[in-house]
Structures are given as structure tokens and as C-alpha cells.
């Protein structure tokens, strides 16, 4: 027989993963301000192996609209520049032979609205994951009840699963609202 703590811990772990995934997705959305996160996930060929840019260069933000990529090896400038272009980030790299400069353009009102729509879609995906985790927990409690768990204990467990879902939904809403605020602030 499974105890309620095990079921709730599993549900909480799934919900935490959904929130972390959303947080990473939101970090990748650029809100008109320069951030080193804009290059997360961009891979560059380094001696035949795909490597993240951060593994072959230092990435800094010297001002609010610029990301500076300084390769540790001069011969990496061209492959990094190519990787940035291929990643289709909407940024045009310019290099001076020493480093690559990415200028973050100011966002138009239309682009801001598109980004808000995109983050709301990401948030909805995370919300579905939260609901799925709750559903799995509730099903686990029903199965445990059939296997001999007292009914009141199973009902309490289902209520706890709902409380967990509410708590994580609040975290999700807070993340979404903060990012939406950041995008819509000119």
C-alpha cells in the first residue's frame, strides 16, 4: 500500500519541474533588454562537437542593449557568428575580429503583444502539466483506497493534492505576471 506522503511528494516533484521548465522558457524570451540568456541553447561546432556558446566564449552585457561575446580562441569568431545567425534569434551579430557584438533592438508594440501571447501559451502548457500531476495524484489515491487505504485518508490526500496545485498555480501566475510586466514596460 502506498502512503499519501509518497503520492504527494511525487505530485510536488512533477509540479516543481513544470514551474522550472516555464521559468527557463520565460528566461529565453527577450524583453527588449540585453541578457546573456538570449544565447542559451545556441550551439556552436567546437572541434567537431556541438557546444553551447558559453563553453567557448565569455558572454557579457556591457549596457542595456548590447550582448558581447568574446571567444577564448580567435578562430571561433566565425563559427559563433554563424551559429547565432542559424539560431534565428532575430539578432544580427557584428564582429570586429576580437569579439561579437549583438545589439538588442527596441521592441515594437506589436512584437510586445506577440511575446505576451507566446509566454501565455508557455504558461498554459505548464498549467496543463500541473493539472496532469494533480490528476495522477488523485488517481493514485483512488487506487490506494481500493488497495486498503482508509477513505477519509484518501479524501484528505486528494484535498492536499488540490492545495499543492493551487500553490503552484499561484507561483505560475506570479512568474507570468512578472514577465508580462517586464515585456510591456517600455
Outline the structure in words.
The chain folds into two domains: 102 residues, Topoisomerase I, Chain A, domain 4 (Orthogonal Bundle), CATH 1.10.132; 68 residues, Gyrase A, domain 2 (2-Layer Sandwich), CATH 3.30.1360. Helices cover 58% and strands 15% of the residues. The longest helix is centred in the last third of the chain and has 38 residues.
Write the layout of secondary structure elements.
Elements lengths: L3 H25 L14 E4 L2 E4 L4 E7 L2 E6 L5 H10 L6 E3 L4 E4 L5 H38 L4 H34 L2
Antiparallel strand pairs: 1-2, 3-4, 4-6, 5-6
Helix pairs in contact: 1-3, 1-4, 3-4
Oligomer: single chain
Domain module tally: 2
* Number of beta-strand segments: 6
Q: What global shape is seen?
A: elongated
Average pLDDT over all residues: 87
Q: Count up the helices.
A: 4
DSSP strand (E) fraction? 15-25%
CATH topology of the largest domain, what is it called? Topoisomerase I, Chain A, domain 4
Give, in order, the helices and strands: HEEEEHEEHH
In CATH, the homologous superfamily of the largest domain goes by the name Ribosome-recycling factor
Given this structure, which CATH class of the largest domain is correct? Mainly Alpha
State the separation between the terminal residues, measured CA to CA. Answer: 56 Å
Estimate the helix proportion, in percent: 55-70%
Class from secondary-structure proportions: alpha+beta
Architecture of the largest domain, CATH level 2? Orthogonal Bundle
Biggest pleated-sheet summary: 4 strands, antiparallel
Q: Extract low-pLDDT stretches.
A: none
